[in-house]
Amino acid sequence: MPLQERKNHWENIYQTKSLEEVSWYQPTPETSLALIKEFDLPKTAKIIDIGAGDSFLVDHLLDLGFGNITVLDISASAIERAKQRLGNKSPNVKWIVADASDFQPKEQYDFWHDRAAFHFLTDDKEIGNYIQTAADAVSKNGIMVIGTFSEQGPKKCSGIEIRQYSESTLASRFQEHFEKIECFTIDHKTPFDTVQNFVFCSFKRKND
């Protein structure tokens, strides 16, 4: 899907659907929070949430005392909804409206988090752009976590074709610049009582 068409699609989603009407809704992003706890990040760590939409991860990170958080999404409407929800906490977050495959980072991050954005990239060039951006933006020895639909998961999301991954194919995508730490699969129960199988992989940025 062309970039502008993708942007228009997501603007429409966030302008017409409420939080509980989207399949990725999670009041508590338990898997992501568990991984952040596992890596024992300092509260000063630079964290970026890629394709965050109006996810609640930023709320939990602020409550945990993290003070250097960036939220990126293609949809300005999603960013605005998250800002409105956070209220007077929103100035404590850096907000970026950009597509993950066309993002020009101005700083490096200690922790790159992406739950369900990467799998929307199906064009090899866009996938390559994303991987290079992550390689440039994650600090040496920094951590990256990617969560996508697994090969047992859906083939579409929000009416858009996605690219499924196994633990091995997801890890191999990033192997040039990142060393795999661990991969696992997990089920996500949607607000509609359906189950989506995800694969999550965590990586450490190589010192190349």
Automatic annotation (TrEMBL):
Stretches assigned to the Methyltransferase domain: 47-142
InterPro entries: Methyltransf_25 (IPR041698), SAM-dependent_MTases_sf (IPR029063)
Superkingdom: Bacteria
Keywords assigned by UniProt, alphabetized: Methyltransferase, Transferase
GO BP field: methylation
Organism the protein comes from: Flavobacterium cupreum
Name of the featured protein: Class I SAM-dependent methyltransferase
MF terms in GO: methyltransferase activity
